[in-house]
Amino acid sequence: MLVVLADLLTLGVAVAISPLAIVTVTLMATAGKGRTNGTAFILGCYLFAVVFVGGLVVLGRASGTDDPDSGPHVAVDIVEIILGGALLVLAVIQWRRRGRHTTPAWMTRLDGLTIGKAFLVGVLISGPLSPKDLPLLVAAGGRISQAPLPVAEVVAVVLVFALIGVLAVAVPWLVSVLAPAQVEARLTGMRVWLIANHSVIMMVLFTILGVKLIASGVMDLAG
Predict the structure, then answer these.
(1) What is the percent of the chain with per-residue pLDDT over 70, rounded to a whole number?
(2) What are residue 111's phi and psi, to 5 degrees?
(3) Helix 19-30 and helix 167-178: axis angle, to 10°?
(4) Closest CA to 13 of 208, 223, 218
(5) Cα(193)–Cα(191) distance, rounded to whole angstroms?
(6) What Pfam families does this protein's entry cite (predicted)?
(7) Measured between alpha carbons, how far is 203 from 178 in angstroms, rounded to an integer?
(8) Which end of the chain is more exposed for a tag (fewer CB within 10 A), N or C?
(9) Tens of pLDDT along 51-98?
């Protein structure tokens, strides 16, 4: 199990480094809603990752991806290579967008969210509306489904992977819970920096992860 988690660590950290998600939690915290909306948002991110990756693992293992010589196993490797190529394309797109420091319009509406809507935003940002996270979750689901592990350990891997994916997002939430009086002073600078450097951060991540996924898929097919 530890070997599988080590293999997934890069993907998990990449999911965690999500500037838009971190900025979203930061905005909720600086608006005084870090304890409520921030908690709901993080739960949305975590539960989506668990359900989505877990669903892919169930489908994959049911089709035989845990057998190294099976067709589905090979298909997962091919999908991984395709996802890596897609991330490299996204890296080029982000590079062309560098220098744009405008705040997305939807961020200005976060203050008025209810707890339920904050949870829904967490679900959407963690996958369906994220060009970065969705391919990574798909790749993680494929990797876990290929691992020859008992069911209990597969469940543990999915839960731990999803937890790694929300660690960075949880930092501003923890600040809002443990030091609410200092939220504005501690988080405002981070929010501004993340918005200003979002494209560059994403470009670097897309490049690293694209190369990793392509290399992993090719090595698995060759080995």
Answers:
(1) 81
(2) -60, -30
(3) 10
(4) 208
(5) 6
(6) SfLAP
(7) 33
(8) C
(9) 999 999 998 888 877 666 566 667 777 888 888 888 888 888 878 877
Collapsing DSSP to helix, strand or coil, 170 comes out as helix
What single DSSP character describes residue 130? Answer: -
Whether 106 and 20 have beta carbons less than 8 Å apart is answered as no
> Tokens 């500037």 label which residue?
19
How far apart are the C-alpha atoms of 28 and 14, rounded to whole Å?
A: 22
Measured distance CA(36)–CA(38) in Å, rounded: 5
Q: What is the DSSP letter of 104?
A: P
Which of these, 124, 111, 115, 114, lies nearest to 39 by C-alpha position?
A: 115
Q: Show Cβ contacts of residue 55 under 8 Å, excluding neighbours closer than 6 positions.
A: 141
Instruction: State the residue for tokens 């951060």.
Output: 201
One-letter amino acid at 106 equals: W
Rounded to 5, what percent of the chain is helix, strand, coil?
Answer: 80, 0, 20
Residue found by looking up tokens 């996270």 in the block: 133
Question: For 17-32, what is each residue's pLDDT tens digit?
Answer: 877 788 788 777 776 6
H or E element at residue 52: helix 37-63
Give the ranges where 97-197 is alpha helix by DSSP (H). 115-125, 133-146, 151-164, 167-178, 183-196
* Separation of alpha carbons 63 and 51, rounded Å: 18
